[in-house]
Amino acid sequence: MVFLKFLAAILVVMFLATGPTVRAQQCSDQLSNVQVCAPLLLPGAVSPAPNSNCCTALQATNKDCICNALRAATTLTSLCNLPSFDCGISA
Which positions carry the signal peptide feature in this UniProt record (predicted)? Predict the structure, then answer.
């Protein structure tokens, strides 16, 4: 859980650095709200079905915010001089 919060914070900071301030703040708020879905993303999650809070947060989040955050996350490895990772996700 701590890792997901750390990753979310990094994604928000990276997104803030790449977009206009107002839009970036809106995305930051939206991405923070999606943290209610984090327990579903952890290995060994007990309940694979999202609850209404997760679905509501996801529905209220602009898809570009999520996509840009994921794209930014994939660049972190190169910025840290680490091998890149491929999760088999196509955007």
Answer: 1-24
